[in-house]
Amino acid sequence: MFTVPAEDKPITNSAVSQLELLANAIMSTGVGMSSCCISGQLHNHATPTGSVTTIGDLSTYVAESASKDRSKTLIFLVDIFGYELPNTRLLADEYAKAGFYVLVPDILQGDPLPISLLQNIEPPLKDQEQAGLVDKTKNTAIAGTSLGPWLVKHREAVTLPIVEKFVEDVKKQSGNSKVGTVGFCFGGRYSILMAHGKVDAAYACHPSLVVIPGDFDPVTKPLALAIGTKDSMLSEAQADEIKAILDKKSVPTELTKYEDQIHGFALRGDWSSDKDKKAQDDALQKGINWFNEHLK
After folding, report:
1. pTM, whole model, 2 decimals?
2. What is the mean pLDDT of each run of 10 residues along the chain (296 residues)?
């Protein structure tokens, strides 16, 4: 279905599993792939207050607490819209206000998908439910032609080394005594992978294209997940399967389900809906509480 770039980085078995998930979603005639990472609203209610610098090889948005304390560092692993998305930076600012040193690296290396996909393809859940089959099929086709090749280009064999190197670069910085990751959608899976002993604690909000049980069996660090019950990329049954795996772990884990929330709710929630705004606020507070507890 997709043309794989001619690179010297092979597609792993794990990546093949991800592409199979992607293909299955694209072939759906329901909401399908149109809500894989492309759901939600652009937030322009405020201006991000952080700064941009270079850490290691990556351009990075930095949000600091008032005290400038770096003893609890959070690395945001972004969705397909990249580190310049206002929603991402504003959320990083909120974590900084809670006392964390927050870094948002450009793990996509200047190659995000255009924000127009966010604004035009995926409406709020109430509009999705009113959409006809023609509109859903059209949106799925647009998402497939845009997102499919992009995901091949940014497959695990390409992205994971970038994330791992950045984590190691941050650990080398003086003052970074505890490091955690917060991942959203595309980046959510990489936050889970960092809980394989790479960081002190991790949080994944509506992760996409996860491999079950392969991504969860190796978890050795505290891991929390926030998942919507209307997430087209992760069914409730799959969420229950993940929880069953995590419940057997000797490290703290937590999986919270959010009723009627679609993919992307914790980052790109529809603030015109009180229920959606409350879910996003709750997911933020759960993340703050999680890291206060596990980055001691």
Report:
1. 0.83
2. 37 46 40 40 74 97 95 96 94 97 98 77 54 59 73 95 97 84 97 98 96 98 96 92 98 97 85 86 97 97
